[in-house]
Amino acid sequence: KPITTDMATLTMEVQKFARDKKIEIETLKIREEYRREFLGNVSHELKTPLFTVQGYLLTLLDGAMNDKSLRKKYLQRAEKGVERLIYIVQDLDMITKMEVGDLNLTFSVFNIIEVVQNVFDLLEMKADKKGIMLMFDQKYIKPVMVYADREKIQQVITNLVVNSIKYGKENGTTEVAVEDLVNNKIIVRVKDNGDGIEAKHIPRLFERFYRVDKSGARSEGGSGLGLAIVKHIIEAHEEKIYVESKPGQGSEFSFTLEKTK
Ligand code: ADP
User: Fold this and answer.
1) Which Gene Ontology BP terms does the record give (predicted)?
2) Which pTM value belongs to this model?
3) Mutation pick for ligand 1 pocket among 92, 167, 233, 244 (CB with most ligand atoms within 8 Å)
Protein backbone atom coordinates (compact mmCIF):
# COMPACT_ATOMS: atom_id res chain seq x y z
CA LYS A 1 0.00 0.00 0.00
CA PRO A 2 1.41 3.44 -0.88
CA ILE A 3 2.17 5.71 2.03
CA THR A 4 -0.35 8.52 2.22
CA THR A 5 0.86 11.93 3.10
CA ASP A 6 -2.35 13.74 2.38
CA MET A 7 -3.85 14.61 5.79
CA ALA A 8 -7.49 14.32 4.74
CA THR A 9 -7.03 10.82 3.30
CA LEU A 10 -5.08 9.78 6.35
CA THR A 11 -7.87 10.97 8.66
CA MET A 12 -10.41 9.08 6.58
CA GLU A 13 -8.36 5.91 6.79
CA VAL A 14 -7.97 6.23 10.52
CA GLN A 15 -11.70 6.77 10.88
CA LYS A 16 -12.46 3.77 8.71
CA PHE A 17 -10.07 1.65 10.75
CA ALA A 18 -11.78 2.77 13.95
CA ARG A 19 -15.21 2.01 12.48
CA ASP A 20 -14.15 -1.48 11.42
CA LYS A 21 -12.68 -2.15 14.84
CA LYS A 22 -15.85 -0.96 16.50
CA ILE A 23 -17.95 -3.30 14.36
CA GLU A 24 -15.57 -6.15 15.16
CA ILE A 25 -15.89 -5.47 18.88
CA GLU A 26 -19.68 -5.20 18.63
CA THR A 27 -19.79 -8.55 16.82
CA LEU A 28 -17.62 -10.14 19.48
CA LYS A 29 -19.83 -8.70 22.19
CA ILE A 30 -22.97 -10.10 20.56
CA ARG A 31 -21.30 -13.48 20.19
CA GLU A 32 -20.20 -13.44 23.80
CA GLU A 33 -23.71 -12.53 24.93
CA TYR A 34 -25.13 -15.32 22.77
CA ARG A 35 -22.68 -17.80 24.27
CA ARG A 36 -23.51 -16.72 27.80
CA GLU A 37 -27.23 -16.94 27.15
CA PHE A 38 -26.79 -20.38 25.63
CA LEU A 39 -24.84 -21.66 28.64
CA GLY A 40 -27.43 -20.15 30.96
CA ASN A 41 -30.21 -21.92 29.10
CA VAL A 42 -28.34 -25.21 29.07
CA SER A 43 -27.74 -25.27 32.80
CA HIS A 44 -31.34 -24.27 33.40
CA GLU A 45 -32.58 -27.12 31.20
CA LEU A 46 -30.36 -29.64 32.93
CA LYS A 47 -31.27 -28.54 36.43
CA THR A 48 -34.90 -29.61 36.39
CA PRO A 49 -34.38 -33.29 35.51
CA LEU A 50 -31.28 -33.47 37.71
CA PHE A 51 -33.22 -32.25 40.74
CA THR A 52 -36.00 -34.69 39.90
CA VAL A 53 -33.59 -37.62 39.87
CA GLN A 54 -31.89 -36.43 43.03
CA GLY A 55 -35.27 -36.00 44.75
CA TYR A 56 -36.36 -39.57 44.08
CA LEU A 57 -32.99 -41.02 45.04
CA LEU A 58 -32.95 -39.08 48.31
CA THR A 59 -36.48 -40.20 49.12
CA LEU A 60 -35.45 -43.80 48.46
CA LEU A 61 -32.41 -43.46 50.70
CA ASP A 62 -34.60 -41.85 53.31
CA GLY A 63 -36.58 -45.05 53.76
CA ALA A 64 -38.84 -45.40 50.74
CA MET A 65 -36.48 -48.16 49.63
CA ASN A 66 -38.00 -50.49 52.22
CA ASP A 67 -41.43 -50.18 50.69
CA LYS A 68 -41.54 -52.54 47.75
CA SER A 69 -44.13 -50.67 45.67
CA LEU A 70 -42.65 -47.23 46.34
CA ARG A 71 -39.19 -48.52 45.51
CA LYS A 72 -40.23 -49.52 42.02
CA LYS A 73 -42.28 -46.38 41.42
CA TYR A 74 -39.51 -44.00 42.50
CA LEU A 75 -36.81 -45.86 40.62
CA GLN A 76 -38.94 -45.67 37.49
CA ARG A 77 -39.38 -41.94 37.94
CA ALA A 78 -35.67 -41.44 38.51
CA GLU A 79 -35.03 -43.43 35.35
CA LYS A 80 -37.45 -41.15 33.43
CA GLY A 81 -35.40 -38.18 34.63
CA VAL A 82 -32.20 -39.78 33.38
CA GLU A 83 -33.88 -40.53 30.07
CA ARG A 84 -34.84 -36.88 29.78
CA LEU A 85 -31.24 -35.85 30.52
CA ILE A 86 -30.01 -38.13 27.77
CA TYR A 87 -32.44 -36.57 25.28
CA ILE A 88 -31.33 -33.08 26.24
CA VAL A 89 -27.65 -33.93 25.90
CA GLN A 90 -28.24 -35.60 22.53
CA ASP A 91 -30.13 -32.55 21.28
CA LEU A 92 -27.40 -30.24 22.58
CA ASP A 93 -24.80 -32.28 20.82
CA MET A 94 -26.72 -32.07 17.58
CA ILE A 95 -27.41 -28.34 17.83
CA THR A 96 -23.80 -27.53 18.67
CA LYS A 97 -22.60 -29.47 15.64
CA MET A 98 -25.08 -27.65 13.48
CA GLU A 99 -24.19 -24.24 14.73
CA VAL A 100 -20.50 -24.67 14.05
CA GLY A 101 -21.48 -25.85 10.58
CA ASP A 102 -20.40 -29.37 11.30
CA LEU A 103 -23.58 -30.98 10.07
CA ASN A 104 -22.41 -33.32 7.37
CA LEU A 105 -25.31 -34.39 5.26
CA THR A 106 -25.13 -37.79 3.64
CA PHE A 107 -27.38 -37.68 0.61
CA SER A 108 -29.02 -40.75 -0.83
CA VAL A 109 -32.17 -41.73 -2.69
CA PHE A 110 -34.84 -43.21 -0.45
CA ASN A 111 -38.59 -43.70 -0.09
CA ILE A 112 -40.01 -41.00 2.17
CA ILE A 113 -43.16 -43.08 2.77
CA GLU A 114 -41.02 -45.74 4.42
CA VAL A 115 -39.45 -43.14 6.71
CA VAL A 116 -42.87 -41.87 7.83
CA GLN A 117 -43.90 -45.47 8.54
CA ASN A 118 -40.71 -46.03 10.57
CA VAL A 119 -41.44 -42.94 12.64
CA PHE A 120 -45.02 -44.09 13.24
CA ASP A 121 -43.80 -47.52 14.36
CA LEU A 122 -41.40 -45.92 16.83
CA LEU A 123 -43.94 -43.46 18.22
CA GLU A 124 -47.08 -45.58 18.23
CA MET A 125 -46.83 -46.39 21.92
CA LYS A 126 -46.27 -42.78 22.88
CA ALA A 127 -49.31 -41.73 20.85
CA ASP A 128 -51.39 -44.59 22.26
CA LYS A 129 -50.78 -43.41 25.80
CA LYS A 130 -52.58 -40.19 24.96
CA GLY A 131 -55.19 -41.88 22.81
CA ILE A 132 -53.83 -40.11 19.75
CA MET A 133 -54.26 -41.80 16.41
CA LEU A 134 -51.39 -41.58 13.94
CA MET A 135 -52.80 -41.36 10.46
CA PHE A 136 -51.15 -41.68 7.11
CA ASP A 137 -53.28 -41.63 4.01
CA GLN A 138 -53.55 -45.08 2.43
CA LYS A 139 -53.03 -43.63 -1.02
CA TYR A 140 -49.32 -43.67 -0.28
CA ILE A 141 -48.70 -47.28 -1.07
CA LYS A 142 -46.61 -46.18 -3.98
CA PRO A 143 -43.07 -45.18 -3.05
CA VAL A 144 -42.12 -41.50 -3.23
CA MET A 145 -38.40 -41.33 -3.85
CA VAL A 146 -36.51 -38.30 -2.57
CA TYR A 147 -32.89 -37.21 -2.53
CA ALA A 148 -31.83 -36.14 0.97
CA ASP A 149 -30.10 -37.25 4.18
CA ARG A 150 -32.33 -40.11 5.29
CA GLU A 151 -31.35 -40.17 8.95
CA LYS A 152 -31.68 -36.42 9.37
CA ILE A 153 -35.05 -36.34 7.63
CA GLN A 154 -36.23 -39.14 9.90
CA GLN A 155 -35.16 -36.94 12.82
CA VAL A 156 -37.18 -34.01 11.40
CA ILE A 157 -40.33 -36.11 11.01
CA THR A 158 -39.79 -37.63 14.46
CA ASN A 159 -39.49 -34.21 16.11
CA LEU A 160 -42.61 -32.93 14.36
CA VAL A 161 -44.67 -36.02 15.18
CA VAL A 162 -43.43 -36.01 18.80
CA ASN A 163 -44.59 -32.40 19.09
CA SER A 164 -47.95 -33.19 17.54
CA ILE A 165 -48.39 -35.83 20.24
CA LYS A 166 -47.10 -33.63 23.07
CA TYR A 167 -49.19 -30.62 22.13
CA GLY A 168 -52.01 -32.56 20.53
CA LYS A 169 -55.43 -33.09 22.00
CA GLU A 170 -56.10 -36.10 24.16
CA ASN A 171 -57.75 -38.74 21.91
CA GLY A 172 -56.97 -36.52 18.94
CA THR A 173 -55.20 -37.24 15.68
CA THR A 174 -51.88 -36.65 14.00
CA GLU A 175 -52.07 -36.71 10.25
CA VAL A 176 -49.08 -36.95 7.95
CA ALA A 177 -49.42 -36.25 4.26
CA VAL A 178 -46.94 -36.25 1.39
CA GLU A 179 -47.92 -34.18 -1.62
CA ASP A 180 -46.38 -33.28 -4.94
CA LEU A 181 -45.43 -29.68 -5.62
CA VAL A 182 -44.26 -28.06 -8.83
CA ASN A 183 -40.58 -28.14 -9.84
CA ASN A 184 -39.98 -31.70 -8.79
CA LYS A 185 -40.52 -30.98 -5.12
CA ILE A 186 -42.69 -32.64 -2.53
CA ILE A 187 -44.10 -31.30 0.71
CA VAL A 188 -44.45 -33.33 3.91
CA ARG A 189 -47.18 -32.12 6.26
CA VAL A 190 -47.61 -33.02 9.92
CA LYS A 191 -50.96 -31.87 11.25
CA ASP A 192 -52.51 -32.09 14.69
CA ASN A 193 -55.79 -30.94 16.19
CA GLY A 194 -54.30 -29.79 19.48
CA ASP A 195 -53.82 -26.50 21.30
CA GLY A 196 -52.55 -24.57 18.32
CA ILE A 197 -50.15 -21.64 18.67
CA GLU A 198 -50.97 -17.94 18.93
CA ALA A 199 -49.70 -15.89 16.00
CA LYS A 200 -47.36 -13.80 18.15
CA HIS A 201 -45.31 -16.89 19.05
CA ILE A 202 -44.94 -18.21 15.53
CA PRO A 203 -41.89 -16.13 14.49
CA ARG A 204 -39.93 -17.35 17.52
CA LEU A 205 -40.90 -21.04 17.53
CA PHE A 206 -37.71 -22.17 15.83
CA GLU A 207 -35.41 -20.39 18.27
CA ARG A 208 -33.39 -22.55 20.62
CA PHE A 209 -35.13 -23.08 23.96
CA TYR A 210 -38.17 -21.04 22.96
CA ARG A 211 -41.35 -22.35 24.49
CA VAL A 212 -44.85 -20.98 24.34
CA ASP A 213 -45.61 -22.28 27.80
CA LYS A 214 -42.76 -20.99 29.92
CA SER A 215 -43.93 -22.79 33.05
CA GLY A 216 -42.58 -26.00 31.61
CA ALA A 217 -45.54 -27.74 33.16
CA ARG A 218 -46.37 -29.14 29.77
CA SER A 219 -42.88 -29.57 28.46
CA GLU A 220 -43.13 -33.35 28.93
CA GLY A 221 -39.50 -34.18 28.43
CA GLY A 222 -38.67 -31.83 25.57
CA SER A 223 -35.40 -29.94 25.43
CA GLY A 224 -36.83 -26.87 23.73
CA LEU A 225 -34.44 -27.63 20.88
CA GLY A 226 -36.64 -29.85 18.72
CA LEU A 227 -37.79 -27.20 16.27
CA ALA A 228 -34.39 -25.47 16.18
CA ILE A 229 -32.91 -28.79 15.06
CA VAL A 230 -35.67 -29.26 12.48
CA LYS A 231 -35.00 -25.83 11.01
CA HIS A 232 -31.25 -26.40 10.82
CA ILE A 233 -31.66 -29.73 9.05
CA ILE A 234 -34.18 -28.39 6.52
CA GLU A 235 -32.09 -25.31 5.81
CA ALA A 236 -28.94 -27.41 5.41
CA HIS A 237 -30.89 -29.19 2.65
CA GLU A 238 -31.69 -25.75 1.19
CA GLU A 239 -35.36 -26.52 1.64
CA LYS A 240 -38.21 -24.65 3.32
CA ILE A 241 -40.19 -25.16 6.50
CA TYR A 242 -43.64 -23.70 7.18
CA VAL A 243 -46.01 -23.52 10.09
CA GLU A 244 -49.70 -22.72 10.15
CA SER A 245 -51.66 -22.73 13.34
CA LYS A 246 -55.01 -21.75 14.78
CA PRO A 247 -55.26 -21.49 18.56
CA GLY A 248 -57.69 -24.05 19.85
CA GLN A 249 -57.84 -25.88 16.54
CA GLY A 250 -54.42 -27.24 15.81
CA SER A 251 -51.15 -26.78 13.96
CA GLU A 252 -49.57 -27.90 10.76
CA PHE A 253 -45.82 -28.02 10.24
CA SER A 254 -44.60 -28.75 6.74
CA PHE A 255 -41.36 -28.91 4.80
CA THR A 256 -40.25 -29.41 1.23
CA LEU A 257 -37.87 -31.96 -0.28
CA GLU A 258 -36.37 -32.69 -3.67
CA LYS A 259 -37.93 -35.61 -5.53
CA THR A 260 -36.05 -37.97 -7.79
CA LYS A 261 -37.70 -39.25 -10.92
P1 ADP B 1 -40.08 -28.54 23.16
O2 ADP B 1 -39.03 -29.45 23.66
O3 ADP B 1 -40.48 -27.50 24.16
O4 ADP B 1 -41.25 -29.25 22.57
P5 ADP B 1 -39.62 -27.53 20.44
O6 ADP B 1 -38.49 -26.74 19.88
O7 ADP B 1 -39.89 -28.83 19.78
O8 ADP B 1 -39.35 -27.69 21.99
O9 ADP B 1 -40.93 -26.65 20.35
C10 ADP B 1 -40.91 -25.30 20.81
C11 ADP B 1 -42.28 -24.88 21.32
O12 ADP B 1 -43.18 -24.76 20.22
C13 ADP B 1 -42.94 -25.86 22.26
O14 ADP B 1 -42.51 -25.67 23.59
C15 ADP B 1 -44.41 -25.55 22.07
O16 ADP B 1 -44.77 -24.45 22.87
C17 ADP B 1 -44.49 -25.11 20.62
N18 ADP B 1 -44.97 -26.20 19.72
C19 ADP B 1 -44.20 -27.02 18.97
N20 ADP B 1 -44.96 -27.87 18.25
C21 ADP B 1 -46.24 -27.60 18.56
C22 ADP B 1 -47.52 -28.15 18.14
N23 ADP B 1 -47.63 -29.15 17.26
N24 ADP B 1 -48.65 -27.59 18.70
C25 ADP B 1 -48.57 -26.57 19.57
N26 ADP B 1 -47.40 -26.02 20.00
C27 ADP B 1 -46.26 -26.52 19.51
Assistant:
1) cellular response to phosphate starvation
2) 0.83
3) 167
**CB of residue 211 inside a 6 A radius of ligand 1:** yes
Please work out whether the CB of residue 173 comes within 6 Å of at least one atom of ligand 1. no
Q: Rounded distance, CA 185 to CA 77, Å?
A: 44
The residues near 86 (Cβ < 8 Å, ≥ 6 apart) are: none
pLDDT in tens, the chain (261 residues): 666 678 888 899 999 999 999 999 988 998 888 888 888 888 988 998 999 999 999 999 999 999 999 999 999 999 999 999 998 999 999 898 888 887 889 999 999 999 999 999 999 999 999 999 999 976 667 899 999 999 999 999 999 999 999 999 999 999 999 999 988 999 999 999 998 999 999 999 999 888 888 765 445 667 889 999 999 999 999 999 999 999 999 999 999 999 986
222 lines ligand 1 (CB under 6 A): yes
Name the residue of 227, 245, 249 whose CB sits within 8 Å of the most ligand 1 atoms, as the mutation to test its pocket: 227
Concatenated DSSP letters for 8-61?
HHHHHHHHHHHHHHHHHHHHHHHHHHHHHHHHHHHHHHHHHHHHHHHHHHHHHH
Q: Which residues pair with 159 in a beta bridge?
A: none
